[in-house]
Amino acid sequence: EKLLSLGCLVYTTGINDEPEWCGQYNKCIYTKVDFLNQDSLDSFINEICQLSKIDILINNAGIQIMHAIDNIETSDWDKVMDVNLKAPMKIMRAVVPVMKSHKEGRILNISSVAGLISKPGQSSYSTSKAGLIGLTRSSALDLATFNILVNALCPGTTQTEMVQKVLNIDQKNAILKNVPMGRFAKVDEIANFAVFLCSDYNSYMTGQTIVVDGGFTAR
Length: 219
Hints:
Layout: H1 2-5, E1 10-14, E2 28-32, H2 38-48, E3 56-59, H3 74-102, E4 105-110, H4 123-143, E5 148-155, H5 161-166, H6 169-176, H7 187-198, E6 209-212
Parallel strand pairs: 1-2, 3-4, 4-5, 5-6
Helix pairs in contact: 2-3, 3-4
């Protein structure tokens, strides 16, 4: 929505029907796609590859399945990796040739503070988000000479739908005790950094991991 308000034509995805907010913007194109279904993902990739120009790619889809390492199901591990790491790689691989043809582009991978630090039960999630940081760094080196900047944004706990589903009240309060600013991030606060990293205001930063967490990882 922040990008749309700035005049961007935005292709956005989700696993449900088109959200009401998307219909409020003339330049919002919504595609229902399930990153756990390879046919669905490949169909979406084929669709966006038909675009003549792609300025920005933001990999923002993510899932989290909590489990201790000795209780982890291989199927759950694969689901988290497919959505959080494999899908971003496949989409990046697809759009890079279009960006290269214009010798310009911005790619932003939404990782997490869980990719830098972790807690019990986050083995698959932390691994996927750390892997996304590694993918960001290596891709930035591959693409720097084409003026394609690749960065990772690591939000702390943010007021999102996933957080509401995954964390109970006690868990939220436990996290807040370790956030120096004493509150969770608002979605707009994360969006503002995303817009900066994808805009012409950022012309030289690439391969970096930017943490926006209210001081959580500074302790």
